[in-house]
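ugh ok fine here u go
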Amino acid sequence: MEKEKETVTEEEVSEVSENEEKAVEDTAEEVIQEDMETEEEIVEDINEESETDLLKKEIEKLKNDYARAYADTENMKKRLMNEAEQTKKYRIQSFAKEIVPVLDNLERALKVEANESNQSLLKGVEMVYNQLINALKQEGVEEIDCLNKPFDANFHQAIMMEKVEGTDAGIVIEVLQKGYMLKDRILRPAMVKVSE
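structure:
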């Protein structure tokens, strides 16, 4: 009977060992499986964080691109508005430059001595001259007033210098050709004689 007990015990022991091994293996597999699931979750979290970071960076880049595009558009709009204002303000500039020599010729014609035969002709030239001057004034074209004023290289072009007693140096003593301005721009500087 003792032998039977020992045999049974060995069988039980071997059964218990197998069960324990199986339980240990199952437990190990469960632990490994849990570890793998945990690692997969961590990797997924990292990937999600990476995607989130990438998306945040992409959003930031798009916001910057939008801000630049908006600023460029606003600058372009301001530039175009400024150019339109300048064009409107100085629209007559090229025409006025062409008309200024005509004014010079009309002034020369008016300097001719009047006699009975050309009296009416001079009157007609004077009327045309005055009408042209008034039309240009309405558009902002004005004669540069410089006689007996200090020479200014921004508005005057000195052609001659002459010493005149009783006059300070650098004073315009004679206008040889009138100068004209369009609002705040110079169409043509005045050609002048300046005192030494």
